[in-house]
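Deliverable D4.2, example record:
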Amino acid sequence: MAVWVPLSITMSPSASLGFRCLLTGKHSSRKLLQPLTDLYRRGYTVKAQQTVEDSGLSTAGFSGPLDHYSGLMRDGSLREDEHQKAVLQKLDQLHKTLRGYSNTPTSFFSKLFTKPKAPKGYYIYGDVGTGKTMVMDMFYSYVETEKKKRVHFHGFMLDVHKRIHRLKQSMPKRKAGKMAKSYDPIAPVAEEISEEACLLCFDEFQVTDIADAMILKQLFENLFLNGVVVVATSNRPPEDLYKNGLQRVNFVPFIAVLQKYCQTLRLDSGIDYRRRNSSTGKLYFLSSEPDAEVTLDKMFDELAFTQNDITRPRVLNVLNRKVRLDKACGTIVDCTFEELCDRPLGASDYLEISRLFDTVFIRHIPLLTLNKKTQARRLITLVDALYDHKVRVVILADHPLEDIFVHSDDHSHDESHILMDDLGLKREDASSLSIFSGEEEMFAFQRTVSRLTEMQTEEYWLEGDRSTKSQA
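Output generated by the structure prediction step:
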């Protein structure tokens, strides 16, 4: 019997780098590229959709994700990790179960009277850099259906809100003097999504927005009832999602729904493999270093020299809003922290930046205390978007990466006190809410540090070069 083999595997940075960052000793001693200019003068080619062949690995003869993982261990590309292997054994079984599965009704009557019985999905959680995304992407690549989607959770929820807005706009206008009929678009949106996919794979499942938190139960309940299988990765166990969030009591029922349809798996080997990978030339600078600004100016000019464009301001159109970036050239943009994180920007803006640019300079990142937790949250969201789209970063900051975000107890000028007063909340009662405590930002920033560490590696830098893709 013929074995189905994926012709290509589209992977996130952590997945594609996972094939190299769990390295044995023979790989770690490889000579590194030091000067930034060498990265451009060697003429590397990176395809838009990275295949396994691009990473030097063949899929020939592999019957599924577990077989593929075992092959990578045999040829020395991966170091065996029992925690990863245990999760892949579960995912490999799900991969086999999904053969021939469809949530599409076979007839009109089956659509009316029966719902497809879907296998349980998986919710995989653990510490940063342990290979969660790698194992999920490996599983995703072998699932034999075209009705599947793999998406960052931020992007998925943005799409959901766009669909909700579109459906509401399509409703007949309220006539003067008459009450508008109530309309709930969540179920129709869930049905739309379930018609497009019977498998949804989410990277970085996290809930920080109250607008998301309030609709998740109804949305996912309908997705599951329509036969959608969900596999997700997260840094938090299900019971800690939206921890200490506003109106969390209304969110808690979603956790029971998630646990009913998804089995929880922990992948936590205690090793952050992103930190084990080799660093390329210097990409993280401190403001205190002599001539740091001049060095970044030269780096930008050299990168801009390879672009078929002039250095100029760019105005992005995001959801009918204008977002101006003062200095860009082709696929290179040079921004300040104030431009990116002091303005009211969000995931949709950062996803558009990730789509248009392959290299982002971020200058003047200050020390982020609780007084700047809103800016810290934006930086976390920005890095998530850049990382998921393999965008390279060059950073100038006031403090070392590990020390950027600190949990300061100085609330003497904390704007959150004004919000507490406006909401009529007592400070001693409200201080434990995540919107005021900064606990969620502190937790999520561990992921940001891990990802920024990986984004300084040679492999990540080379994979992010889009100039060679456009030529191809």
